[in-house]
Amino acid sequence: MVLSAAIQLALLDALRAAAAGNALTADELAGKIQAMDGVAVDRILRFLASFDVVKCSAETSPDNGAVLRRYTPAPVCRWLTRNNGEGSLAPFSVFMIDEDHLLTWYIHILPITTASLSR
């Protein structure tokens, strides 16, 4: 669901477009996509960084000593962003994790798996 949110917010597109070697903070990215909350954007990006969808580097702020995280796109972002008309897996990714799509699998697979476990 986090990947779907990042794709629908065009967060990965903004990161890839802006990061020609520049690492951006979550607040800078939130400003680019007109998001109200930089903290939520930071949480999304930290989650994606744990799966190497984006890269994260941390540094200490000279002002108050707080941790400042900067993000850059990982190579997999190429397949999840608009690539100048070259094609993208983003719509397919959103479809595959859509609740309506997954619900049909739960309806059909859950009775089979619970029946085989009860034997």
Description:
GO terms for molecular function: methyltransferase activity; protein dimerization activity. Residues 1-20 form the signal peptide. This is O-methyltransferase dimerisation domain-containing protein. Residues 1-82 form the O-methyltransferase dimerisation domain. InterPro entries: COMT-like, COMT_dimerisation, WH-like_DNA-bd_sf, WH_DNA-bd_sf. By secondary structure, the protein is an alpha+beta fold. It has one domain (2-89): Arc Repressor Mutant, subunit A. Helix content is 55%, strand content 13%. The chain has 7 helices and 3 strands. It has helices at residues 2-8, 11-18, 26-32, 38-50, 77-80, 90-96, 99-117; strands at residues 24-25, 54-60, 67-73. It has a 3-stranded antiparallel β-sheet. A hairpin with a 6-residue loop joins strand 2 and strand 3 (67-73). Helix 3 (26-32) packs across helix 4. The longest helix has 19 residues, at 99-117. It is globular, with a radius of gyration of 18 Å. The two termini are 34 Å apart. The model has no long low-confidence stretch (mean pLDDT 78).
Sketch the topology as an H/E string, one letter per element: HHEHHEEHHH
Q: Work out the strand percent.
A: 5-15%
What is the arithmetic mean of pLDDT? 78
Query: How many E-type strands?
Result: 3
Q: How do the strands line up in the largest sheet? A: 1-3-2
- Low-pLDDT runs of 5+ residues are none
> Which CATH architecture is right?
Orthogonal Bundle
**Separation of the first and last Cα atoms:** 34 Å
Rounded to the nearest angstrom, the radius of gyration is 18 Å
Question: Any idea of the CATH class?
Answer: Mainly Alpha
